[in-house]
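Please decode residue identities from the backbone states below.
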């Protein structure tokens, strides 16, 4: 089994993109005398914590209460040990997994969550890590040196769909590679609420691109019915992250310009076929 010092070197040097070496650091500590993996872990950028986990986050932020509320809503009995088997194990575990997924998205995780995500990241191809349902795995992946600029260009459009704490790491990597895309304006129209227990799906498409500015449309809909819950749009510019000056992508980054040209034609075709 790898030591923490070895894993830390792997994360901060061997796997980390060169542009962020020396800026991103990982820290972990075990509580003295505590059972199992009780401890604290954090990720620092330029000496400031931007992601941190401990065993009390799940309880202290009310996720246990959410578990109980969800089980009551679905009328799932508590686990019962018969002497041979545990009754209602699958039902309880399924609902608990929903809340645990929500907690991870909110940035509430334990050292065990961190360790499991790290192991998954180390054993999984990088493209699969970028598409992982686990936001901690995606955090490790987006900082990985194997992720090139072409992939980063595609990921840029998914930043708005990431949990707020994770979006920071996406923007950090993009800006470290000289890819800055500040938001010029945002608009949103709310149609209907998304209620607890419902699953929402966010559809993103490019609506306009002229080499200097990019417009992105968002549609939040009920995953089961397709009913629209909200619609929005954001407009972005492209800047050189070092000088702060506007960029014309056709000259500054022809690969990205080509990707966006292809994607906007694809999105327009999809929109036309849906009408």
């Amino acid at each position: 089994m790898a030591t923490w010092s070895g894993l830390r070197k792997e994360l901060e040097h061997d796997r980390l993109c060169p542009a962020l070496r020396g800026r991103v650091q990982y820290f972990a500590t075990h509580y003295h005398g505590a059972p199992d993996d009780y401890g604290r872990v954090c990720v620092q950028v330029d000496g400031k914590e931007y992601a941190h986990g401990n065993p009390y986050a799940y309880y202290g932020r009310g996720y246990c209460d959410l578990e109980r509320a969800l089980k009551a809503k679905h009328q799932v009995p508590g686990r019962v040990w018969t002497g041979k088997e545990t009754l209602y194990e699958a039902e309880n575990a399924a609902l608990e997994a929903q809340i645990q997924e929500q907690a991870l998205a909110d940035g509430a995780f334990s050292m065990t969550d961190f360790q499991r995500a790290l192991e998954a990241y180390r054993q999984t191809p990088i493209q699969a890590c970028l598409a992982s349902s686990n936001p901690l795995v995606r955090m490790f992946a987006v900082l990985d040196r194997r992720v090139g600029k072409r992939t980063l260009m595609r990921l840029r459009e998914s930043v708005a769909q990431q949990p707020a704490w994770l979006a920071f790491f996406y923007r950090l990597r993009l800006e470290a590679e000289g890819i800055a895309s500040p938001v010029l304006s945002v608009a949103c129209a709310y149609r209907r609420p998304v209620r607890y227990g419902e699953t929402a799906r966010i559809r993103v498409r490019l609506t306009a691109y002229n080499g200097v500015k990019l417009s992105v449309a968002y549609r939040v809909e009920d995953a089961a019915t397709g009913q629209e819950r909200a619609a929005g749009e954001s407009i972005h510019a492209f800047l050189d992250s070092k000088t702060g000056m506007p960029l014309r992508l056709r000259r500054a980054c022809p690969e990205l310009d080509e990707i966006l040209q292809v994607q906007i034609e694809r999105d327009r075709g999809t929109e036309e076929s849906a009408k």
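Observation: The two ends are 56 Å apart (CA to CA).
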